[in-house]
């Protein structure tokens, strides 16, 4: 015979206790999911050496004075301006996002889409883009170059 308020006479658990356990289990599941989501979002979005992360570009002396080197994975041109002064220019055109090419003969970056031109230091020369090329932060640490593609500074208006 079943008593009032008891779910099952064999287990002897009241309905109130059953709801209490179910509520506790639901809260534990909710907290576990929330904790998992927070953990995933607190992880760095980009790994070292991937676009959006930090690139170790190599030793300073690896680059000739005045050289322009394309890092395809990082989508930037590294320009040695003199001594330990380097700039990293985002390869993406500031007009509609085509990939710029370095034209060694004419010493300009040119856009294959609408013909924009930028000087070696990324300064706007001609074409439809609204600003000069964007830049990434470059650090020299113990003669090693590190480019942070997570920190992009927009180019100056054309
Ligand atoms: S996308 Fe480069 S000029 Fe239009």
List the helices and strands and how they pair.
Layout: E1 6-8, E2 13-14, H1 15-42, E3 54-59, E4 68-71, E5 76-82, E6 85-90, E7 101-103, E8 108-110, E9 117-119, E10 124-126, E11 135-141, E12 144-153
Antiparallel strand pairs: 1-2, 3-12, 4-5, 5-6, 6-11, 7-8, 8-9, 9-10, 11-12
Q: How does this structure look, described?
A:
The protein is α+β, with helices and mostly antiparallel strands and 158 residues long. The chain has two domains: 37 residues; 100 residues, Rieske Iron-sulfur Protein. A six-stranded antiparallel β-sheet has the order 3-12-11-6-5-4, with no helix packed on it. A four-stranded antiparallel β-sheet has the order 7-8-9-10, with no helix packed on it. The model has no long low-confidence stretch (mean pLDDT 89). FE2/S2 (inorganic) cluster binds next to loops.
CATH superfamily of the largest domain: Rieske [2Fe-2S] iron-sulphur domain
The number of strands is 12
Instruction: Estimate percent helicity.
Output: 10-25%
CATH topology of the largest domain: Rieske Iron-sulfur Protein
Hetero ligands: FE2/S2 (inorganic) cluster
Count of separate structural domains = 2
Name the shape in a single word: elongated
CATH uppermost class of the largest domain: Mainly Beta
The number of helical runs is 1
**What is the H/E order?**
EEHEEEEEEEEEE
In terms of DSSP E residues, the strand content is 35-45%
Structural class: alpha+beta
Mean pLDDT: 89
Please summarize the sheet with the most strands. 6 strands, antiparallel
Q: Which architecture of the largest domain per CATH? A: 3-layer Sandwich
């Amino acid at each position: 015979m079943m008593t009032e308020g008891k779910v099952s006479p064999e287990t002897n658990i009241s309905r109130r206790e059953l709801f209490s356990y179910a509520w506790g289990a639901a809260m534990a599941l909710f907290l576990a999911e929330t904790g998992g989501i927070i953990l995933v979002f607190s992880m760095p979005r980009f790994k070292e050496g991937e676009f959006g992360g930090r690139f170790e570009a190599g030793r300073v002396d690896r680059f000739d004075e005045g050289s322009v080197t394309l890092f395809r994975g990082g989508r930037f041109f590294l320009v040695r301006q003199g001594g330990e002064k380097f700039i990293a220019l985002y390869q993406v055109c500031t007009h509609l996002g085509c990939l710029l090419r370095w034209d060694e003969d004419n010493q300009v970056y040119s856009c294959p889409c609408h013909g924009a031109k930028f000087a070696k230091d990324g300064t706007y020369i001609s074409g439809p883009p609204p600003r000069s090329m964007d830049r990434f932060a470059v650090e020299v640490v113990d003669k090693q170059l590190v480019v942070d593609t997570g920190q992009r500074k927009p180019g100056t208006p054309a």
